[in-house]
TrEMBL record:
Key words, A-Z: ATP-binding, Cell membrane, Ion transport, Iron, Iron transport, Membrane, Nucleotide-binding, Transport
Entries under InterPro entries matching the protein: AAA+_ATPase (IPR003593), ABC_transporter-like_ATP-bd (IPR003439), P-loop_NTPase (IPR027417), Siderophore_ABC-ATPase (IPR051535)
GO biological process: iron ion transport
Lineage of origin: Bacteria, Bacillati, Bacillota, Bacilli, Bacillales
Topology with respect to the bilayer: Peripheral membrane protein
An example Gene Ontology CC term for this record: plasma membrane
Pfam family, one: ABC_tran
Domain of life: Bacteria
GO molecular function, one term: ATP hydrolysis activity
Domain AAA+ ATPase: 35-261
Protein's UniProt name: AAA family ATPase
Major location category of this protein: membrane
Compartments, as annotated in UniProt: Cell membrane
Amino acid sequence: MIYLRSFKLSDYTDRNPNIYPDYVFKHVAGEVLLFDRITVLYGNNGSGKSTLLNVISNKLEIPGAEKMTSYGHSIYAQRFLDFSSYQLGSDGQEHEIRQLPKGSRYMKSEDILYEIKKIQQSSVLREGIMYEQINKGMSKAQAEQYEATYAFKKKLDDIQFSQEKYSNGETSMQFFEEYLQPGQLYLLDEPETSLSPANQIRMAEQINELARYFDSQFIIATHSPFVLGTLHAKIYNLDARPLQTAEWFELDNVQFFYQFFNKHKQLFE
């Protein structure tokens, strides 16, 4: 299922080179990204892939978005959002989708790390669960009411139990197994955080299955060669000028891994 068909970046670039987020996307101003069931935004540090996910999530008002107007450039950020546009997809009967699934979400690497911290440090367990509920769409008042429920206490007990049971990577896998559900649009920022190569591949295979068989759509920012090589995805290379798609094995980061291991191949033979 394609919930988000395309996204067009603002074609306006301020003359001031320090205006955010104009300067981040100066090289791709006015570009249109066309999305598949799984689309990857690839780029090295500073390429703008995480910022692009946040722009999309702000424009679509997806839960988990970091409000761009809090960065001190509210007028310019709002202008960028106003000048950007998107087109939703269609359902199985080719009827245009009028709104995104309610469970759609933007998940940042910080969310995953916070989940790990929440599990491993009992002093922030309660705060972490409240943060999670608000991030999923609850108001502060609703979250406070939830805190008094049996469901809250059970979740707290479960997390305290898992504190002694799971490593960082296993906690991350739990996070994705709990939150990645059928029939949703997910924007994932570096989901490989804390995962071993084997678990990165396992997670990517799970994403492939959700996209192919369970009507979920993913837009993912990553530079992990294991994730890139496993996902059945369209890949946009944000390091390229102009913006273009690429095969995973053509990307600089993957080539770096190949050259490194090829240089030491005699050690493996």
